[in-house]
Design brief:
It is built from 7 helices and 4 strands. A 4-stranded mixed beta sheet has the order 2-1-3-4, with helices on one face. Helices cover 46% and strands 12% of the residues. The structure holds FE2/S2 (inorganic) cluster.
Length: 153
């Protein structure tokens, strides 16, 4: 069961401090615990740090790994930048979308997997590449991609 959002903010502020420089770390903690950053947490972080809610939203929108929407238990991030594109990321995207029955940006109805596209993740020499819950998978083929998806709980 997820922890209380207010308690997560309280604990993160105790750990990282309440200065502006701690905002990204606090938000990272919330995102990791809950899988997303709910509005009540945004208000609580803004209060704790002494900035406006808009400033917290602006930090969240800057970093692609933050979300204000609930996401799946697993998150697949597919790189669609040029090296991966040239090595077949489109085919991998189509494979994942077909396997899951959803488009990029969506979550499966059972809450199992969220599919996102991302810019370069630094694995260009091993393209095409994805991150599955922050674990990299590289030189993907459609078969390997299907195998990875089948192994997700
Ligand atoms: S272009 Fe895909 S990892 Fe760099």
């Amino acid at each position: 069961m997820s922890r209380n959002p207010q308690k997560i903010v309280f604990d993160a502020v105790a750990k990282y401090g309440s200065g502006r420089e701690a905002v990204v770390q606090i938000l990272t903690e919330i995102n990791r615990e809950l899988g997303y950053i709910p509005e009540e947490s945004i208000v609580a972080v803004a209060d704790a740090v002494g900035v406006s809610n808009a400033e917290i939203y602006s930090v969240i929108s800057f970093y692609s790994f933050f979300s204000t929407e609930p996401r799946g238990r697993n998150i697949i991030r597919l790189c669609t930048t040029i090296s991966c594109e040239m090595k077949g990321s489109r085919e991998i995207l189509e494979t994942i979308e077909a396997e899951l029955g959803i488009k990029a940006g969506a979550t499966t109805p059972d809450g199992r997997i969220t599919l996102e596209t991302t810019s370069c993740i630094g694995l260009c020499d091993q393209a095409p590449a994805i991150l599955v819950n922050d674990t990299p998978h590289t030189r993907l083929t459609p078969d390997e991609t299907r195998r990875i998806i089948a192994g997700l709980e």
